[in-house]
């Protein structure tokens, strides 16, 4: 009897253990069910977002095709003009179109190129700018066959166009030629703009001499304390830069050009655009 009683106790304890495990498993199962429900809801939301994105991309593609064919009016009439979504889609389509144009513009080096004479030639535009201000634009018409040949242009005559074409080996690759030409034109535009700014911003400084290329600039300064005149010559021998390669001072005061103060002025004019260097020289009291 004792053996049977012991077995009964053991069976009862085993049953209690199974029930306890079952009770522990139920909250875990309920927690797992909640997790699965949350994951399902998240996946459904993601699915709906993807569907919306696909529909948006289809609408954008349709609008872009219409814009590229210059048939935007017909495409826009099919959509609700008062719809905010419609307006947003049109803006997004225009944005992607401009991004594509910008990318293409970058690939050709930032030069505007259009076909001429039914594809027998091209017209290349080279824009110039200085300190974020767009200035003049220059154009070249180039024959494509049998060899690349510049037939018309409005490049200033003092820019050695033919020499640049030969040195850059335009026949092999036109990009280096255009890059070199752009360097020369932008440097010239920068020097020319600096001369203009001197005349506008520094009325007390007299421009004594300058040439068409703006590669030589002679200015007359006045030293405030002594009222001494100083002749300043800026020589731009590197025509691909808008900063001078040499600065020379002349004065009745023979010691002035070699003084530490004016040696600093010389360095300033070599390293800083002249109209800005003059502002610094005035602030330091070196010139009127």
- End-to-end distance: 125 Å
Order of helices and strands: HHHEEEEHHEEEEHH
On the 0 to 100 scale, the average pLDDT is 83
Q: Tell me the name of the CATH class of the domain at 202-283.
A: Alpha Beta
| CA-based gyration radius | 38 Å
Spatial ordering of strands, largest sheet: 1-2-3-4
CATH fold naming of the domain at 202-283: Enolase-like, domain 1
- Biggest beta sheet summary: 4 strands, antiparallel
Strand count:
8
* SS strand fraction: 15-25%
Please sum up the structure shown.
This protein has 288 residues and is of the alpha+beta class. Among the domains are: 78 residues; 82 residues, Enolase-like, domain 1 (2-Layer Sandwich), CATH 3.30.390.
Topology summary:
Layout: H1 2-68, H2 72-77, H3 84-107, E1 112-116, E2 121-130, E3 133-143, E4 149-153, H4 161-167, H5 174-201, E5 206-210, E6 216-223, E7 228-235, E8 246-251, H6 260-271, H7 274-283
Antiparallel strand pairs: 1-2, 2-3, 3-4, 5-6, 6-7, 7-8
Helix pairs in contact: 1-3, 4-5, 6-7
Describe the structure.
Among the domains are: 112-189; 202-283, Enolase-like, domain 1 (2-Layer Sandwich). The chain contains seven helices and eight strands; from the N terminus they run H-H-H-E-E-E-E-H-H-E-E-E-E-H-H. The chain has helices at residues 2-68, 72-77, 84-107, 161-167, 174-201, 260-271, 274-283, and strands at residues 112-116, 121-130, 133-143, 149-153, 206-210, 216-223, 228-235, 246-251. The protein has a four-stranded antiparallel sheet with strand order 1-2-3-4. It has a four-stranded antiparallel sheet with strand order 5-6-7-8, with helices on one face. A hairpin with a 2-residue loop joins strand 2 (121-130) and strand 3. Helix 1 packs across helix 3 and helix 4 packs across helix 5 (174-201). 16% of the residues are buried. Mean pLDDT is 83; it is low at 71-79.
């Amino acid at each position: 009897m004792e053996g049977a009683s012991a077995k009964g106790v053991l069976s009862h304890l085993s049953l209690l253990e199974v029930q306890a495990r079952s009770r522990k498993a139920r909250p875990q199962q309920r927690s797992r069910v909640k997790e699965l429900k949350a994951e399902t809801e998240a996946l459904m939301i993601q699915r709906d977002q993807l569907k919306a994105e696909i529909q948006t991309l289809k609408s954008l593609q349709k609008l872009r095709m219409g814009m590229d064919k210059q048939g935007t009016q017909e495409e826009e009439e099919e959509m609700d003009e008062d719809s905010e979504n419609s307006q947003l889609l049109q803006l997004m389509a225009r944005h992607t179109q401009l991004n594509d144009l910008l990318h293409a513009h970058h690939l050709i080096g930032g030069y505007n190129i259009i076909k001429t004479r039914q594809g027998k030639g091209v017209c290349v535009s080279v824009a110039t700018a200085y300190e974020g201000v767009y200035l003049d634009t220059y154009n070249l018409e180039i024959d494509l066959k049998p060899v690349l040949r510049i037939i018309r242009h409005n490049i200033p005559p003092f820019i050695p166009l033919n020499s640049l074409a030969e040195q850059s080996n335009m026949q092999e690759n036109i990009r280096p030629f255009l890059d070199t030409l752009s360097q020369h034109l932008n440097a010239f535009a920068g020097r020319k703009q600096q001369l203009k700014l001197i005349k506008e911003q520094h009325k007390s400084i007299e421009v004594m001499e300058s040439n068409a290329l703006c590669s030589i600039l002679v200015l007359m300064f006045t030293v405030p304390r002594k009222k001494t005149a100083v002749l300043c010559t800026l020589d731009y021998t590197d025509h691909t830069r808008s900063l001078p390669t040499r600065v020379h001072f002349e004065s009745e005061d023979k010691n002035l050009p070699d003084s530490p103060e004016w040696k600093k002025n010389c360095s300033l004019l070599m390293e800083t655009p002249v109209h800005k260097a003059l502002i610094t020289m005035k602030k330091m009291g070196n010139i009127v």
